[in-house]
Amino acid sequence: MRWLSGIRKAFHNDGGKDRQESGTANDHRQRRVHIPHDENEAAHAGEPPSKDAIIEAACYYTCSKVCYGVKGQAAQCCAIGERDFIIGPIDDTERFLKDLSSKLGRAVEYADVFMDFEEGSKLFPEKKLWQDPENYPCMRIVDDASIGYPCQFLDQNMKCMVHSIKPDVCRRYLCPYLREIVDQLEYKLDPPDE
To answer: By mean pLDDT, which of 70-79, 95-104, 122-131, 164-173 is the weakest?
Structure first.
């Protein structure tokens, strides 16, 4: 708020001259605040964030704080729950395994991270998406209904422990609630030409 106090100071130091109105209908002077140029203040203002940065921040906030529009809910797309849902297919398995191994400082095996059709289809025989080989490999989940069958990389606070290196399918996924927010931001931040 340093910039605001600087504006107030400049505004009050002029003796209020710029705030006085002439009282005549023909006087077209604009009322304005005279602000002396301050190189340091301008340098601290910086560049505004890009549209992509704003959308990324909105996605992270929404997923962390109001997932699916529910205040306090997070990372529901990272858990199977009751719905017919699968975290797959993962098309960048090699890249993810390499990045995960680097992050952990040790080699990580494919079977420790992913499930193939043979294993996954037996886990949820009643779920249609789990019966389609096209949805594999998928992320390995914690086989515990009491916690909603989450991805093994979620911590107790529903935060992704591999967020910076997560697979592309996770990076690209937008639930319907988040898709609506992103569409609105895309439109508001880059309105069509009239």
So the answer is: 70-79
| Domain contains 67 | yes
Assess whether pLDDT exceeds 80 at residue 10: no
Indicate if 108 and 16 belong to the same structural domain.
no
Threshold 0.90, pTM exceeds: no
Q: Which domain holds residue 16?
A: 2-20+29-45
Taking CB atoms within 8 Å and a gap of at least 24, the contacts of 61-67 are 62/177, 62/178, 62/181, 63/178, 64/159, 67/175, 67/177
d(CA 26, CA 124): 79
Checking phi first, is residue 155 left (phi over 0); if not, alpha (psi -120 to 50) or beta? beta
Residue 125 confidence (pLDDT): 96
Structure tokens at 8: 């107030």
